[in-house]
Amino acid sequence: MEQIIKIDTEYITLGQFLKLAEIIDSGGMAKWFLSEHEIFINGEQDQRRGKKLRDGDSIEIEKIGKFLVVKQ
Asked: For a 10 Å CB count at each end of the chain, is N or C smaller?
């Protein structure tokens, strides 16, 4: 089951998403987290901390879960 992550802006970055979804405790952990975990955005692997996530984007992180970005 996908977790819904609600945003109120046009987009958020992958690093911001990780913090908003409570996967990491601080933005400083994003670089380390991305180097240690495979992340798939809309079915394609992407490790860029600055990758823009928009309404409807699906994120899958192995062993952590599936997420869906939804604009409020």
From this structure: N
| Backbone phi, psi, residue 11, to 5° | -155, 165
pLDDT band of 16, cuts 50, 70, 90: very high
Decide the pairing of beta strands 2-7 and 44-45: unpaired
* Average model confidence (pLDDT) across the chain: 96
Angstrom distance (rounded) from CA 72 to CA 25: 24
CA-to-CA separations, 28 to 18, 48, 61, 69, in angstroms, rounded:
11, 14, 19, 22
- Nearest in space to 13 (alpha carbons), one of 36, 37, 1, 30: 30
Cα separation of 11 and 13, whole Å? 7
CATH number at residue 51: 3.10.290.10
The boundaries of the domain holding residue 62 are 2-71
